[in-house]
Specification:
By secondary structure, the chain is α/β, with parallel strands linked by helices. About 30% of the residues lie in helices and about 25% in strands. The strands form five sheets. It has an eight-stranded mixed beta sheet, with helices on both faces. Strands 3-4-6 form a three-stranded antiparallel beta sheet, covered by helices on one side. A two-stranded parallel ribbon has the order 1-2. Strand 3 and strand 4 form a beta hairpin. The chain is globular. The two termini are about 40 Å apart.
Length: about 325
């Protein structure tokens, strides 16, 4: 409808994760005037020469260069085809200079796939205000084209500098060694580390691999909570009430190393406290998992979990 009234619409969807959608609807969207492209497309003829494990996992939308959305939510119906499992996400709406940073991230992805973005104030308008009256935020793209795993470094650094409490929500938890060490040193300093994960996972192998780390995390002193209502898909972290992260990146090796992600860093107390309040609401719908309860599970469950753990770098 927007394209029909003259709005220039660009749609970029991951070539593997959205292959069915692009196959079914790509042509009709293009006929309607939408510029639809696949990000990191899978081309069978070139498969021996391409890496299929690097995917575009970013979730963002920019309207007229003035309003931007980003977070954890995909453009999908709430159950993702799993009728008995509902997703719970978090998104943030922004205006001001941060929107230009989101637009720049999309532009880089668009041009990577051969798209023409053009130039001019209609595409990159001057932001409304200078941002001084709003919250202090930073848009942080990450991905395998960068020399360092910048988001992983930021998360680990925040854990090392935490003083009182850290709260993390993530649907997929496959920690790196440095992430585990940062949690351990934080707990030894007296920091409370709360980690919320869904009780049920939509991904069988990543779910098994994540559960193989539960005992390690509990022995390190982290508190682990299982979200009951459905798949907690929000990817967030708050630190001491004055720093917070949210976005598309899971706390796992794939998101830190292989996926193209986008996250928001909040430095202002208003947004940090608002995000922590949302985390506290998730906690009220979760059950704490103790080490004794976890160790009482059937012994046969250890085998598939440990086997899946071997595949952690790819999951």
């Amino acid at each position: 409808e927007a394209a029909g009234r003259g709005v220039r619409c660009r749609l970029l969807a991951d070539g593997l994760g959205s292959r069915r959608f692009l196959r079914r609807h790509g042509r009709s969207l293009r006929r309607a005037g939408v510029e639809a492209r696949a990000a990191l497309p899978v081309r069978p003829a070139r498969r021996p020469f391409e890496r299929l494990d690097m995917r575009n996992h970013r979730k963002l939308a920019v309207i007229d260069g003035r309003v931007g959305y980003t977070g954890s939510q995909n453009l999908a119906e709430p159950t993702y085809g799993h009728r008995s499992l509902r997703w719970y996400d978090l998104m943030v709406r922004m205006a001001g200079p941060a929107v230009t940073e989101i637009q720049a991230t999309f532009t880089a992805d668009w041009k990577l796939e051969g798209g023409d973005f053009g130039e001019g104030e209609d595409l990159f308008p001057a932001p409304d205000g200078d941002g001084e009256d709003g919250e202090l935020v930073q848009i942080l793209p990450s991905g395998p084209l960068l020399r360092q795993e910048n988001y992983q470094r930021l998360v680990v650094s925040a854990l090392h500098h935490a003083r009182e409490v850290v709260t993390i929500t993530t649907p997929y938890l496959i920690p790196t060694e440095s992430f585990l060490e940062a949690i351990e040193t934080a707990v030894l300093r007296g920091v409370r580390v709360d980690i919320l994960v869904p009780r049920r996972s939509d991904q069988h192998l990543p779910g098994l691999a994540a559960r193989s780390y539960y005992e390690t995390l509990l022995r390190l002193g982290a508190r682990l909570f299982l979200y009951e209502p459905g798949l907690l898909h929000a990817k967030t972290m708050t630190v001491d009430g004055d720093l917070a992260f949210m976005g598309s990146s899971n706390f796992d090796i794939r998101s830190f190393s292989l996926n193209f992600e986008i996250n928001v860093v909040f430095y202002g107390p208003e947004m940090v406290n608002a995000l922590h309040a949302r985390q506290e609401a998730f906690l009220l719908e979760s059950a704490e998992l103790t080490l004794d309860a976890w160790n009482r599970r059937p012994r046969w469950r250890h085998i598939p979990e440990n086997l899946a753990r071997l595949l952690s770098p790819l999951l």
